[in-house]
Protein: peptide chain release factor N(5)-glutamine methyltransferase
Organism: Drosophila rhopaloa
Amino acid sequence: MLRQLPRSLRMTSRLRTQVNYATNSPTGQSQIPVTRALEIGRWAEKLKAAGIEDTEFNLKCIVSHVLKQKFNSVPDSFAQLKFNPGQLADFERFLEARCARMPLQHIVGEWDFMDITLKTSPSVFIPRPETEEFMRLVIEDHKNAKSVDLLEVGCGSGAMSLSMLHSLPQVEATAIERSKAATVLAAENAKMLGLLDRFRVHNHTMEEDKYLPEELKDQKYDLIISNPPYVKTEEFQFLHPEVVVYENLNALDGGSDGLRVARLVFDLACRHLRPGGKLWLELGNDHPPLVKTIMNLKYEGRLKFVASYSDQYKRERFVQIEKV
Ligand SMILES: C[S@@+](CC[C@H](N)C(=O)[O-])C[C@H]1O[C@@H](n2cnc3c(N)ncnc32)[C@H](O)[C@@H]1O
């Protein structure tokens, strides 16, 4: 069952592994049979009417979150489950939020990314499954390096840097992030994962001629990674409500051609990558040919386009560049 679900909707390992509290009522409150009290069918219809496709998965995920019960141990038929009045109120509140298209990741409050679980926060970008594919390529490319000084531009929750640190002990990571909330969340996630000794995050907005914070202005790196905002302004009309309403637009808006922030990253890479160092970028699906042209025309002798790679949907999205 689980393997057939979209990867973007995978539940956290906490949900997978948590002990079963369902039949105990910690407050001693009376319990209400789920089937009678919650009218599950009614909620499934409401979710469908709100445009949510995988209603069964959404319901089960929210039930497991409310009951603090392993996702896999929630039965497909909810007939034997019981909620106390507090849990019932939570369940209805979370489903109302989901009907308003609040992402499941924000309702649950944490989500898996590769082998790590990250806390989420309403104003911080939710890491995407395609970014896991991107990070697998980057990790594969650096697994045999003796040591790697990594810089990430726009770390959000910390997903990319922290998964790299978790996989490769020879990596030291520095990240910059314009959002204060994301900076705090990334540090919290690093602490929660025991990776704070190899991860530093700075609340800094990369701008022309102020690419890095003052204390890093002379630093050089072996590797720069970024999943910058790359949505073209004209494409905003096609985004899902989960994205438009609940994501921070500063995390998405890449300007008229989607490369406004990526172009700053190119200039930053010229200044802060060591010769032979790599720049890896996750971008939109029509960006790689454009990036290749930009490298040839504007950065010849400084940056070299190495290759592009496709995501699981066969969209060419990931770009590898080398410092000459
Ligand atoms: C698409 S999100 C990616 C977040 C994270 N790397 C991930 O993959 O989940 C882009 C991030 O870049 C940050 N950002 C945007 N412009 C920035 C800038 N000029 N300097 C630093 N961070 C920036 C945003 O706040 C956001 O957290």
Q: What stands out?
A: The two ends are 48 Å apart (CA to CA).
